[in-house]
Amino acid sequence: MSTTATIVNPARSVAGRFGAYGGRYVPETLMAALEELEAAYNAAREDAAFQAELDDLLRNYCGRPTPLYFAKRLTEQCGGAKIYLKREDLLHTGAHKINNALGQGLLARRMGKHRIIAETGAGQHGVATATVCALLGMECVIYMGEEDMRRQELNVYRMRLLGAEVRGVAAGSATLKDAINEAMRDWVTNVRTTYYILGSALGAHPYPTMVRDFHRVISREAKAQMLEREGKLPTAIVACVGGGSNAIGAFYEFLGDKNVQLIGVEAGGRGPKLGEHAARFQKVDGGVPGVLQGTYSYVLQDENGQVATTHSVSAGLDYASVGPEHAMLHDTGRATYTSCTDDAALKATVTLSRTEGILPALESAHAVAEAIRLAPTMAKTDVLMVNLSGRGDKDMGILSRELKIQGV
C-alpha cells in the first residue's frame, strides 16, 4: 500500500488533486455516482438560488455568524499571546459539522435523492446529518462503530430521537474507519437512490473539495471578525485534525496570508508508538502516503502495509488517514502539524472550563492544549485563534470516567 509521495506545486493542482494527493480510488460501480455528484455540486456552487437558501439556513437555522470570543482569563493565565476562540461550538447541534451536513443535504434534495446515509465517529456529524434529514423530510441511516457508540452514547440517542436509524459496526476496531467502510458498502448497493453525506474533508473526489467549501465560511467570518476586533490578522490559527474538516475550514481563507501560521493538532493518544495514537504526520511511527477509502493521503500502516490500529480519547480524531489537502499543506510547509496526548487534552478541557466557563469537545480540547502550550512562547502583541469546533456535552461520560481516575 505504501508508496513514496511526489511533491507537486499546489499551483499546478488539477480538480480532485492537492499536489500529489487526493484522487478517486473507488470501485467501478461508484465512478458514475461520483461524476454525477461532481457535476451537481459544480452547478449548485454557481447557482445563486442554492447559495441564497444555504446562506439563509446557515444564518437563521444554524446560528451563523458564530462569535469570535476573546478568552481574557485564559490569556492572563497563559501569558504571552492574546487567545481568541472561534465559537463553532455554539452552532445548532453543537459543532461545525452542521455547515457541511446542511450543504450536502440541500444538494441531495436538488439531485432528487430522498435516502441519506452517513458515517460518524464522535457522533456530531451523525447528529448534524440526522437534523438536516428531519428538516428536509428525508430517510436517514447513520453508520457508527460500536466502540464509538459506547463512547458517544448520548449522541446515539440524539440521532435516534431525530428519526435516524443508527447501525452499529462491529468490524475492525469498531471506530470511524470501519463505519466509513460500511457506509461505502451501502452506497455501492443503493447508489441509484441514495446520497452519501461524507462527514470530513476526505474520501474520493469531489468530497474533499466540497466539504472544505461548505466549511470555508469559518475562516471567511474569522478573517473579517479579526480585522474588526484587532485591526490585523492573527499570528497563528490552531485547529484539531481528525479527517481535517474544521481545520481546513478555519485555514482556507488564510492560505494566501503567508504571515499567518497554520497549526493542525493531531491525536497523540497514549504515546508515540504505532497503535497508541492517530498522528499521521508524526515523524517516527507516523503515516506514509497510501490509499485509504477512496483517496491518496498519509495513512498509518503497519510493517506489512496494512492499516494500523489507532487510539484517541476523542472519537472524532481516531482515524488512520487524513484529508488530502492537509497532506499537501504538510509537505509544502504551508501548515505545520503537531500532536497532543490524551492527558494534555483532558487537562486543557478542565482549564478552559474553569477559566472561561466553556466546556470544549475533546476533539477541540486538543487545539486548546496546543494554544496553552504555545501562547506563553509568543509576544503579548501576537494574536492566536483557536477554532473551537464543538462542545463537550457529548463527552461527559468519558470525562467523568477519565478525570475521576486523575482525581479531578
Automatic annotation (TrEMBL):
GO terms for molecular function: tryptophan synthase activity. GO terms for cellular component: cytoplasm. It catalyses: (1S,2R)-1-C-(indol-3-yl)glycerol 3-phosphate + L-serine = D-glyceraldehyde 3-phosphate + L-tryptophan + H2O. Its EC number is 4.2.1.20. Pfam families: PALP (PF00291). Keywords: Amino-acid biosynthesis, Aromatic amino acid biosynthesis, Lyase, Pyridoxal phosphate, Tryptophan biosynthesis. Tetramer of two alpha and two beta chains. The beta subunit is responsible for the synthesis of L-tryptophan from indole and L-serine. This is Tryptophan synthase beta chain. It comes from Edaphobacter acidisoli.
